[in-house]
UniProtKB/TrEMBL annotation:
Pfam families recorded: Abhydrolase_4
UniProt keywords, alphabetically: Hydrolase, Signal
Domain Peptidase S33 tripeptidyl aminopeptidase-like C-terminal: 93-195
Keyword Cell division in record: no
Superkingdom in the source lineage: Bacteria
N-terminal signal peptide: 1-32
Gene Ontology terms for molecular function: hydrolase activity
InterPro entries named in the record: AB_hydrolase_fold, Pept_S33_TAP-like_C
Protein name: Alpha/beta hydrolase
Source species: Mycobacterium bohemicum DSM 44277
Disulfide bond in keyword set: no
Length: 197
């Protein structure tokens, strides 16, 4: 998405990605409505698509989402640090960096807590699901969580989609069978699963 001046409009891109995510997880009954909105937008009437974007924004910017995202950090960047991150992340992550850095401002004044201690022992083996290039949570979390699980004397396996997005099972049918198998049986698959993009 570019403005009339040719500059990438990250806010519009972010909204489009929200709509795209909504399209990917929409039930088949809603698919006709999405198709109609896209067809209307292609013909010059963006009202239906704007309504979908507004609904997605409202769901993302709800109090629950705000509380969840702002309660999920121990250290917050200062406004000056956010300014630095806007520049740095725009270079490192051209698609999402600016938006991600600006989203840090929402939680600047939210109180922080202490980090939870890592578990000493786990009695349940854990199946980890992740995406190689996750614009929402990054890709370091799966490896860090696997290390925590090992240190707690439990086993883990990974289901990783090697694409760009948030949620392995949303984007790759390859990721679904090991997840369903684990949910049904509580047993880990024999090997890690890596699903190509």
């Amino acid at each position: 998405m570019r403005t009339a001046e040719g500059v990438c409009d990250h806010a519009k891109m972010h909204r489009w990605l929200i709509v795209l995510g909504a399209v990917l997880v929409a039930a088949s009954a809603a698919t006709a409505g999405v198709a109609s909105a896209l067809a209307a937008a292609r013909s010059g009437d963006a009202n239906q698509l704007t309504n979908l974007i507004n609904r997605a924004d409202a769901a993302q910017d709800s109090d629950g989402q705000f509380i969840n995202s702002c309660s999920d950090a121990v250290n917050r960047p200062t406004p000056d640090r956010v300014r630095e991150l806007v520049v740095a992340w725009a270079k490192l992550y051209p698609q999402f960096g600016t938006v991600a850095a600006l989203n840090l401002v929402k939680c600047v004044h939210w109180p922080t807590g202490s980090p939870q201690p890592a578990p000493k022992s786990l009695k349940v083996d854990v199946l980890l699901a992740g995406v190689q290039n996750d614009p929402i949570v990054g890709n370091e979390g799966v490896a860090a969580t696997a290390a925590t699980i090992i240190n707690a004397s439990a086993a883990s396996k990974r289901v990783m989609w090697q694409g760009i997005g948030h949620g392995a099972s949303i984007y790759s049918p390859c990721a679904v069978p090991p997840l369903i198998g684990y949910l049904n049986s509580g047993k880990l698959p024999g090997t890690d699963t890596y699903c190509p993009a």
